[in-house]
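tool_call predict_complex ligand=adenosine-5'-triphosphate
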Amino acid sequence: MRFSEFGLTTLKEVPAEAEIVSHKLMLRAGLIRRLASGLFTWMPLGLRVLRKVEAVVREEMDRAGALELLMPAVQPAELWQKTGRWDQYGPLLLRMHDRHQREFCFGPTHEEVITDVASRELRSYKQLPVNYYQIQTKFRDEIRPRFGVMRSREFIMKDAYSFDIDHDGLEASYQKMHAAYTAIFERLGLGFRVVWADSGEIGGSKSQEFHVIADSGEDAIAYCDGSDFASNIETAPTFPAAGERPDPTRDFEKIATPGVRTIADLCQRLDIEPAQTVKTLIVEGDDGPVALVIRGDHELNAVKSQKLPGVASPLVMADDRTIREATGRAAGSLGPVGLELPVYIDHAVGHLADFSCGANEEGFHYTGVNFGRDLPEPETVDIRNVIAGDPAPDGKGVLSIARGIEVGHIFQLGTKYSEAMGATVQDQDGKDRVMEMGCYGIGITRIVGAAIEQNHDDNGIIWPAPLAPFDVVLVPINMHRSDTVREAAEALYTELTAAGLEVLFDDRDVRPGVKFADAELIGIPHRLVVSERGLAAGELEYRHRRDEESRDLKREEALNVLKESTIS
Ligand code: ATP
Ligand code: MG
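tool_result ok
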């Protein structure tokens, strides 16, 4: 590709709307352009990268025996009503009407449609297992679209759905996808981790996410250095502390704490650590509000909490009015002693002695609070996020926390959708059996952003070779004034292209500095510079995007470096 014919516009300025580096670089390098909130155009350069991601995903899905199809993006409401998700999915679902006032949505995912397809196509156990997949545009009306293509409203997903006669079959199909995903992210050259996850909206039982590890990741991942245990913090379990709870040493006291609103205020006022306090959070419940009590230095875990009996799912914090109506008190003054609400106490709180908490009276706190004396012995539950240093569930060490970007998610759905939609096949005995389903997503567009988060420097993107929009950038110096350079550059362009390399030939009449800066910004792995001085010595200047310095190589040597780099 000749740069002069490629219509690429790079930007020097960092666009104001971009918060994280991948978003900034994608805009600056001209990979994407914004249309509206969460909507982006993939420009020619960006589309080349996207197609590479798709190609790797497609190859590995095909290799795993999955069958590609393409479902409509627009889906009739009736299908979603059958599974109950029309009402459950909420404002994430973009709903619309056709001219006959029939209701539709723009698909955020395709369980309903594929189950409908499967229920018509699959009749006998002999047709199983089947795994159908597609690569297609989805729409989710995200509450906070941000980070460019990483959390957009319209995005491209690879979604696959497996159908099996029984649970063993599902397990085998799931493991096949686990292996295919591992191969995909390895081939793409990304540093990733597979973590246990919550099945969320989609439902079902077993589920794992594939995360690209990056500081800007929206998800926290807990992992154990001593084993291969890793989990999204959403589901990483905590346990009752080992050993006996310390005995009480202090008297139960009520003290005046005017103006104290937060745990930090309280600690300052009493000169204690947050770990010696508890906070009482009020959430909505099926029959009125419910109190959740965690240690002052811990964070509430919404995913775990919303699974408790009586607690509303998804978790909603009760507002001040509801709290006042239910308790007669303000939120900031609450504590578990004498609180007339259903109360859940976290495991870590159950291990505290002599702690401090709100006294259910504005401007007062209790100190020296002890279970078994000032409060009944608690039955504790797991409602907090794990923190670094917590024991791993496999007992093989302690947890560390890293940040990750979810690029893939695999689920065992079981019969949730097949049951609701009557997707059955005849088994060996001629009886109808509801098929066991799995579903498997990859965020194709999100991968591009995630790859940049992991691979960049101050000057721009550093594409892992399999994702690079071009393999080589060919930079002639003063081509418009030197026939020698022009002829040599044209010959190299022809030769490299013929060797199967994707070459960006920077034939623009601009200063070399501009060409170098653009080449670095757009992150092409190999750079070849053709100059009169080099040609006179039979040499080309070569530099890999990751190298500190360029090297002068004999022409043949340089070509060999490039040709070898494409043999993978
Ligand atoms: P998240 O937790 O990030 O909102 P999710 O768990 O809702 O994602 P899934 O339903 O598992 O997403 O969808 C499969 C994949 O699609 C995700 O692993 C992710 O890579 C991608 N994806 C989901 N939502 C978006 C989005 N808003 N923008 C870009 N990619 C997305
Ligand atoms: Mg997910």
